[in-house]
């Protein structure tokens, strides 16, 4: 029996290598999954000419997810998942910060801005229509413009306007 086991091991180790199955292509590589790539990077964010915070947007899950990690100038934080939802045929962002949640969806408009619309839900249970737009500038900066619908005035009000400038690496 021992000789049979040794012979089997020798045959296995000396047998010619068989073709390995081809690696599956990386997921989420189609152009639609790259539509929000202009937001990827490490950013300094200002609003009204004053520092508002820092944001890191990184690619995760084989290119299927953009993870946002926000820290405001006063130290509050928030995170979002940003992804193309093939079932809905739209980009979607789910943002969470301090118990408040923004959930919205959309896509690129005719000018190349990422425009999402949905709802903001506050910790106290209040909700409101919400929309955001991210627009790449010629200098590589990104303008982020959030608006919340005010039912009393029946109008959209600016919620946050930020200018994202890429952090420069030091040698």
Q: In brief, what are we looking at here?
A:
With 171 residues, the protein is mainly β.
Features:
53% strand; ten-stranded antiparallel barrel
Number of domains: 1
CATH fourth-tier homologous superfamily: Calycin beta-barrel core domain
The share of residues in helices is under 10%
CATH topology: Lipocalin
Q: In percent terms, what proportion of residues is strand?
A: over 45%
**SSE arrangement, N to C:** HEEEEEEEEEE
Distance between the termini: 65 Å
Any idea of the CATH class?
A: Mainly Beta
- Nearest-integer average pLDDT: 90
**So how many helices?**
1
Strands of the biggest beta sheet: in what spatial order? 1-2-3-4-5-6-7-8-9-10
Structural class: mainly beta
Would you spell out the secondary-structure blueprint of this structure?
Blueprint (H helix, E strand, L loop, with lengths): L1 H13 L26 E7 L2 E11 L4 E8 L4 E9 L4 E8 L2 E9 L5 E8 L5 E10 L5 E9 L4 E12 L5
Antiparallel strand pairs: 1-2, 1-10, 2-3, 3-4, 4-5, 5-6, 6-7, 7-8, 8-9, 9-10
Can you describe this structure?
It is a single chain. With 171 residues, the chain is mainly β. It has one domain: Lipocalin (Beta Barrel), CATH 2.40.128. It contains 1 helix and 10 strands. The chain has one helix at residues 2-14, and strands spanning 41-47, 50-60, 65-72, 77-85, 90-97, 100-108, 114-121, 127-136, 142-150, 155-166. The chain has a 10-stranded antiparallel beta barrel with strand order 1-2-3-4-5-6-7-8-9-10. β4 (77-85) and β5 form a beta hairpin. The longest helix has 13 residues, at 2-14. The protein is globular and about 60 Å long. The termini are far apart. Mean pLDDT is 90; it is low at 5-15.
């Amino acid at each position: 029996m021992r000789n049979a086991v040794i012979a089997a091991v020798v045959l296995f180790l000396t047998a010619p290598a068989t073709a390995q199955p081809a690696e599956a292509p990386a997921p989420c590589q189609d152009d639609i999954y790259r539509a929000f790539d202009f937001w990827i990077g490490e950013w300094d964010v200002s609003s009204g000419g004053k520092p508002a915070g820092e944001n890191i947007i990184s690619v995760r899950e084989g290119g299927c997810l953009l993870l946002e990690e926000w820290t405001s100038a006063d130290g509050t934080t928030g995170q979002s998942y940003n992804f193309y939802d093939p079932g809905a045929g739209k980009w979607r962002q789910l943002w969470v910060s301090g118990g408040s949640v923004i959930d919205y969806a959309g896509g690129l408009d005719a000018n190349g801005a990422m425009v999402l619309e949905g709802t903001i839900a506050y910790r106290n249970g209040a909700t409101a229509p919400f929309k955001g737009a991210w627009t790449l500038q010629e200098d590589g900066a990104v303008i982020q413009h959030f608006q919340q619908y005010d039912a009393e005035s029946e109008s959209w009000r600016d919620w946050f306007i930020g200018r994202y400038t890429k952090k420069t690496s030091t040698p």
